[in-house]
């Protein structure tokens, strides 16, 4: 059975002055998918993800996220998505608990439900002992996992991850991907940008961007077949040249 | 920090920013050396803040004293001072005042004029005896300074300095806070939430509003203890007006930071507004004596209204009905600045 489409972009264009950051992007993301958005630095991944999250408006094109129009229904979209930027953006001068409380409050999660979910989250991430510590004092790997957990705390339909594992060691990255799988298993659609090609293998489908354009879009297996490559790294190098 | 800085500011500025002349150095050049000239000099010497010294014999030397700032004024008696006084019933002295600071110069002049007119009354009485002829009918002024009977400059400055203090804290802190979130990126995380624009701005406003009012209470207590500042009016009126005022100031601070991208920009723009607002606000110079165009601009200056409120309530005990114009103006400015901040805040770049 064909799964329902949760993100659709048609001829999405974003220009900054004369520079075209996103050139005619057309793609669809299905519900429950882990969708990888690959590309070199400056290929336009972050621009696209910011548009999908409503942080930036496109120059032209038709975009729908969670069934809502990107131009007129951004606030409705925002209720249904979670976002984790490449820059760590929880409040470093608040404790773990306080950060959770803040975002639970913004999304209108009640006190009781918050306590239950917070306990669950802290147990899963093994952060119970440091829940009253300032976030600024935590190591980067913990921060990233926490940022991800906070981004999906309100059970969004889609979570957007912009290079979530930048600067993190391979072991922590592997653990981070366990969290992503778990979220996907719970029905959350995951839209993730990365430039680590090993991570691309973990995705259901990937699109590869180069200079603002989508050059390829398929499952990792089919892409490897098409480009006669043994791994995603080779595929990427063939496309990006 | 939030508490130490205001105390320092209160203590230093209120004591320092005074127009009271505590010491006037007067150089006397007496070419007459008569009984009457000595008499008048003695009168000056009798006033505690007049320091009469250096009885120079030449004007040139006296002028040097004026030039190197050792003297504030020179009093010159001409050779025939006493003779003219006796023969013509009229004699002249010359008073040269250092008028670099026009305020001080005027004070020295009016003090001196008082002393000399006092001297005049005395010689008329001394020489002519008690009313030889009927003295001309005269209207005399007896002063009674209301609201600040001892003309204590500190009482005038303290409420003004407090107004500035609350403004600085409000404008800088709110402005810096928001733009700092832009710099470190936490604002992005908020912008992808369904948080409404007004909720965000109000959320940024409330903490600083409370801190501002708290600092005002704190400053008033210090002024009351240290300067013996009487608080004649009701505290409720004062804090009610301060609350409205702070909404405007914080709104302006937030508005600036929605436009700015860095803390430097906020500093620069806020500082620009602060300088104009403070200098035109009437703390040092009365607004009534400014040119008309400046007074018109001052209608947009929240400090101008709040400065009046502070002084009127603290020193005179004015109540809300006396302050209707200020109340209305501050409310309009508050709503305007706050609306601008909400309108200009962008969740989508």
Concise summary:
Chain A is α/β, with parallel strands linked by helices and 241 residues long. Chain A is 37% helix and 27% strand.
Give a description of the structure.
The complex is a heterodimer of chains A (241) and B (349). Chain A has 241 residues and is an alpha/beta fold. Chain A has 9 helices and 10 strands. In chain A, the strands form 2 sheets. A 6-stranded mixed sheet of chain A has the order 6-7-8-3-9-10, sandwiched between helices. In chain A, strands 2-1-4-5 form a 4-stranded antiparallel sheet. In chain A, helix 5 runs parallel beside helix 6. Chain B is mainly alpha-helical and 349 residues long. Chain B folds into 2 domains: 109 residues, abc type-2 transporter like fold (3-Layer(aba) Sandwich); 192 residues, no CATH class. In chain B, 64% of the residues lie in helices and 6% in strands. Chain B has 13 helices and 4 strands. The mean pLDDT of chain B is 86. Chains A and B meet through helix 2 and strand 6 of A and helix 7 of B.
């Amino acid at each position: 059975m064909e799964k329902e489409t949760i993100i659709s972009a048609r001829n999405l264009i974003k220009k900054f002055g004369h520079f075209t950051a996103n050139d005619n992007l057309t793609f669809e993301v299905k519900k429950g998918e882990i969708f990888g958005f690959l590309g070199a630095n400056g290929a336009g991944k972050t621009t696209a993800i910011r548009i999908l999250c409503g942080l930036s408006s496109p120059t032209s094109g038709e975009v729908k996220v969670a069934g809502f129009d990107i131009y007129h229904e951004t606030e409705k979209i925002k209720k249904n998505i979670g976002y984790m930027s490449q820059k760590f953006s929880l409040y470093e001068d608040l404790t773990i608990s306080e950060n959770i409380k803040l975002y639970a409050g913004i999304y209108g999660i009640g006190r009781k439900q918050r306590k239950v979910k917070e306990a669950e989250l802290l147990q899963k991430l093994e952060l119970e002992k440091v829940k009253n510590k300032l976030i600024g004092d935590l190591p980067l790997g913990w921060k990233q996992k926490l940022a991800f957990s906070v981004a999906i705390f309100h059970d969004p339909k889609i979570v957007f991850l912009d290079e979530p594992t930048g600067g993190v060691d391979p072991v922590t990255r592997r653990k981070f991907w366990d969290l992503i799988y778990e979220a996907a298993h719970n029905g959350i659609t995951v839209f993730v940008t990365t430039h680590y090609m090993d991570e691309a293998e973990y995705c259901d489908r990937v699109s590869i961007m180069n200079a603002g354009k989508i050059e390829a879009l398929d499952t990792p297996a089919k892409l490897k077949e098409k480009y006669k490559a043994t791994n995603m790294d080779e595929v990427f190098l063939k496309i990006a040249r | 920090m939030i508490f130490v800085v205001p105390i320092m500011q209160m203590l230093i500025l209120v004591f320092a920013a005074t127009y009271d002349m505590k010491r006037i150095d007067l150089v006397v050049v007496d070419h007459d050396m008569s009984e009457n000239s000595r008499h008048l000099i003695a009168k000056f010497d009798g006033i505690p803040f007049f320091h009469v010294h250096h009885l120079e014999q030449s004007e040139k030397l006296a002028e040097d004293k004026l030039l190197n700032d050792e003297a504030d004024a020179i009093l010159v008696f001409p050779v025939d001072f006493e003779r003219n006084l006796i023969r013509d019933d009229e004699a002249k002295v010359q008073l040269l005042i250092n008028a670099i600071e026009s305020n001080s110069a005027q004070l020295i002049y009016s003090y001196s004029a008082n002393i000399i007119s006092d001297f005049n009354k005395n010689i008329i009485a001394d020489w002519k005896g008690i009313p030889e002829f009927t003295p001309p009918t005269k209207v005399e002024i007896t002063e009674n300074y209301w609201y600040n009977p001892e003309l204590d400059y500190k009482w005038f400055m303290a409420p003004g300095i407090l107004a500035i203090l609350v403004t600085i804290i409000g404008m800088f802190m709110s402005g810096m806070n928001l733009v700092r979130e832009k710099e470190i990126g936490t604002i992005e995380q908020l912008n992808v939430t369904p948080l409404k624009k007004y909720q965000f701005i109000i959320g940024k406003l409330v903490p600083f509003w409370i801190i501002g009012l708290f600092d005002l209470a704190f400053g008033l207590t210090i002024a009351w203890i240290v300067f013996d500042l009487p608080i004649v009016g009701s505290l409720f009126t004062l804090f009610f007006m301060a609350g409205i005022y702070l909404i405007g100031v914080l709104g302006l601070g937030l508005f600036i930071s929605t436009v700015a991208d860095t803390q430097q920009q906020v500093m620069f723009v806020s500082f620009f507004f602060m300088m104009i607002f403070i200098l035109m606000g009437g703390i040092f110079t009365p607004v009534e004596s400014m040119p008309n165009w400046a007074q018109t601009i001052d209608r947009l200056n929240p400090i101008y209204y709040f400065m009046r409120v502070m002084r009127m309530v603290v020193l005179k005990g004015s109540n809300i009905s006396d302050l209707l114009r200020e109340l209305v103006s501050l409310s309009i400015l508050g709503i305007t600045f706050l609306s601008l901040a909400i309108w200009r805040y962008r969740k989508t770049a």
